[in-house]
Amino acid sequence: MSTATRIKLSVMMFLEFFIWGAWYVTLGTWLGTTLGFSGEQIGITYGTTAVAAMISPFFVGMIADRFFATQRLLALLHALGAAALLFASIQTTFGALYTVILIYTLFYMPTLALTNSLSFRQMQDPGREFPGVRVLGTIGWIVAGLVVGTLKVEATATPVRLAAAGSLALALFCLTLPHTPPQKTGRVGWRDVLGLDALQLLKNRSFAIFVLGSFLVCIPLQFYYAFANPFLNELGVTNAAGKMTLGQMSELGFMLLMPWFFRRLGVKYMLLVGMAAWVTRYLLFAYGNNMALAWMLYGGIILHGICYDFFFVTGQIYVDQKAPADVRAAAQGFITFVTYGVGMLIGSPLSGMVVDRYAMTTGAGAVLHDWHSIWLVPAGGAAVVLILFAMFFRADSQEGRP
To answer: pTM higher than 0.90, yes or no?
Structure first.
């Protein structure tokens, strides 16, 4: 891969995740604080990404890979996404905003797979070259959070408009990317799109437990994505969006350390550490405050590196190891459908209902929450999954060890 191509792919990844980081982190604060949406409405709105994650495999597998050059399709999707985000920023009612955000996520979520596939097509050795390109995506997310936090616009529609501007910029930039024509031909069915050929792997008891555990842990996971920023802002944490980027910074560090941990822990204990980090994060949030115990809030944020890398990245590696070569792509698609799709779709309204359960209105009309009780719910759910996973999951002693 030439230096010019590497730079273009890096810029693409930077903008791809700058867009997501700009609107996604602080959306709940805008919806709850300014528009007055309930917790359930906020959770359901965040669930649009899960709906799109379930539909995206159909789009990518049955349409994108067979009829369009990837860079042109990316340009079109991001241009439409920019228009949708701009329109979303002027909505004030739940029904209208939910509909527009759902339309936007249907444009955006397929681009996650398309940017990866375009990158792989340009590389001679993806295993060696891709991490150096993909890391720019995490940096893009960090920059977006720092910009939003510095501007102090978390409770406004400005982050959504910033994401719209980034989406338009990426749409134009995609036209400069290397030409990447479609590769696949012939008919394809739902089994290919949803990765149903991977169901044969469920005959393996440990793999079935892994899938079930991944699904269950993604339900309490949505509490963090939808309500961490509103929680921090309600506690009076300044520049909450900027400080939440500490999670992505730790993600970078732990990603570099993963080979070292793999050699010493293997797959099972890596997954357990990842699950335990989710439990610990929620407990830190439950008992922390913005005074003497502010360190707990920062600790919960910084744990994102372990939460994400040790569970999700390790899980992807485990799936790749367990699946035969001819169904690896199907297996990855299936686990994504189960976790980011079904798991988070269930977690979205559930998290919102819990937040509403512990909401209270002050005499001045402001809505406050019993965050201690709220965070104990996902902590308890994640702890149950952790215990069951530790009891029943088995992995070969050398799985995950280079």
So the answer is: no
